[in-house]
Amino acid sequence: MPIAPSGEIVLSEDEEAYTIASPGLRAVAVKSPFSFKVYDDRGGLLANLLGIEWNEKRSQTALLAMDDRSHFYGLGEKTGFLDKKGERYEMWNSDVYAPHVPDIEALYQSIPWSIHFRYGLPAYGVLLDNPGRTAFDMRTRADRYQISAEKGALDLYIVQGPTLKDVVRHLTALIGRTPLPPKWSIGYQQSRYSYMSQEEVLQVARTFRKKQIPCDVLYLDIHYMDEYRVFTWDPVAFPRPHEMMRELEALGFQLVPIVDPGVKKDPSYPVYRQGVHNGYFCRKLEGEIFIGPVWPGPSAFPDFTDDGAAAWWGDLHVHYTSHGIKGIWNDMNEPSVFNDAKTMDLDVVHANNGDPKTHGELHNLYGMLMSKATQEGMKRHLSGERPFVLTRAGYAGIQRYATVWTGDNRAYWEHLAMSIPMVLNLGLSGVAFAGPDIGGFSHHTTGELLARWTQVGAFTPFCRNHSAIDTIRQEPWLFGEKVEDICRSYIGLRYRHMPTLYSLFYETSVSGLPIVRPLLMEFPDDANVYNLCDQFLFGPDLLIAPILRPGTFSRAVYLPAGVWIDYWTGERHEGGRWILAEAPLATMPMYVRAGGILAEQPLAMYADDEAAQSAPLTLTIYAGGDGQFRLYEDDGRTYAYEQGAYRLREFSWSEHSGSSTLRCQPAHDGLPHGIEKEEEGANADKQTLRIVVRQLSSAPAQAIVSGATLREWTYDAETRQLHAVVEGAAGNFELRFF
């Protein structure tokens, strides 16, 4: 069935066809020869299903029309460029340690979803809800693309537009949206396979603070466990985890340990005993528990399709929450097994809450169901705080439960470049909170590569530096002062823009729109951007143009229509053309659309740094056009926002006939002014806004405000910047310069 606007659905039949009509959509199923066409409310043809084919094994393939104008996006986590036309991909969650190259058809995530886009025509998407082995083929036939399922149903959803934004909104209304994460989880994160001891973890944390490099999260890979048994600590390397957590907490750090699904086969191990005794592990039809080799050796695997097993697994995480741990890293959950098939036997039978299915039928669900069990268990034991879950494997809708990182990449410049379209297409598939391992996981990074990757990573939704055990370490301070300063600067830039980033997370939680976007999403009529993926937008207004090759200190940047302002120099550029941007190692080209508004805070060392939390925010406006921005605030930790404890202010900037006006309209104010800090001084600060207007062409003669108090304002003719301080700015106000 098409995904339709709400309203009455009418089914009718005549000699030639069945017609399904609803407000906004009409579907016609022609009886012979079979076809299925979906039309929008203007009668325009959206999707044209030309037929369905079966092979000798009864596998099904749907054939949908495409033409020379067709472009394809989404498809989750795939290698290659942004536009997937001419490619074929399989959906089969796979642990791929080999270098990720364009001809790899399957990786860790399987999101059977594609967007069909043609300039000048309404866009639409197709979702195949089948967690077995499926494929999307935009290569084999010139006039049609193919969606196939090896087993099970072709359960297809046609998701209407007409715009790319509409398609993503409607998709995420169907499969779910990214909930608001804890604010600490959108800060910078540092990992290593592995930090081998409690003292090593603490030394890394102390060094971040000593060097004044912002960081919120450290990770523990598999070596923190007792012989790789999940829900244990190595008694020698991590003898006092509670003590370690107390120091980390005092320094402002969160700790995220890895938890794999494999449970060591060991009759003396309580987790294994409980799973066997209660029937929580995956089994063959005849009742034999499936045992597969992974890091602990022979291991059993929880059957997350069974609600009882999932709840048991979730509650085991009290082992971590009792120490103050609020985030978990799920790895190896494709599931990966060290055997010839690299996964669980396909004839394993999952309980599936009374509707048994083979693993071959449900394979791609395993990772998402593990993350669901983890997230729900953590939530039960965190006393109202939001948990953070990071996953390698997933399926359509994984964003409801976990953040996604793109797996075992390498310290290759090509992988830096490839990470951009990968994260962009994940965003177009509903997964807004995603990112690669900064610096590359495997192979040996260099100072130049780490600097350039950190520049990009500062503006990707998930921001983690991670490296493998047999590679040189890649903490930011290990490549000399120059690289350290660059990393410090750009990580600090992320923290300064934390109010903007957190507001973008709010937007994705309510609309499903991605945080980082291909230019095509904001400029769908621009024929130059259909496959442009070496630059991207952070929200709607900030254009990021990273350097993706070694020894490169300038690059061509495409600026879409409008006026764009160089973030660093303030130089104005007319859009609709390419420019040459200078990019010494310390500079990543960035441009703000005229009229764009960015919210900033003072530099913080971590998300809950009191100095930043209690200080006034700065609203930076880039003059030369009209713009809007919604600023979202809550406590950053709990679910109180679900009961209305948040503040949402809608800012607009307009320029007309020599005057400029900033308006603030509260859309919701469920926070006491200054709830973040109860002291009176902090209350006053949280009601104060610093306003900076960049590239304002001339000095205003005067400024007036209504609904608030204008404490002061100045204009610097040399920099063409206006500075103002507005008190009592939590409510409705208007500030006008003329």
From TrEMBL:
Organism taxonomic ancestry: Bacteria, Bacillati, Bacillota, Bacilli, Bacillales
Domain DUF5110 stretches: 616-670
GO molecular function: alpha-glucosidase activity; carbohydrate binding
Coiled-coil parts of chain: none
Residues covered by the Glycoside hydrolase family 31 TIM barrel domain: 178-504
InterPro entries: DUF5110, Gal_mutarotase_sf_dom, GH, Glyco_hydro_31_AS, Glyco_hydro_31_C, Glyco_hydro_31_CS, Glyco_hydro_31_N_dom, Glyco_hydro_31_TIM
Stated name of the protein: DUF5110 domain-containing protein
Keywords: Glycosidase, Hydrolase
A GO BP annotation: carbohydrate metabolic process
Organism listed in the record: Cohnella ginsengisoli
Pfam families: DUF5110, Gal_mutarotas_2, Glyco_hydro_31_2nd, Glyco_hydro_31_3rd
Domain Glycosyl hydrolase family 31 C-terminal: 512-598
Family in the record: Belongs to the glycosyl hydrolase 31 family.
Chain ranges of the Glycoside hydrolase family 31 N-terminal domain: 8-137
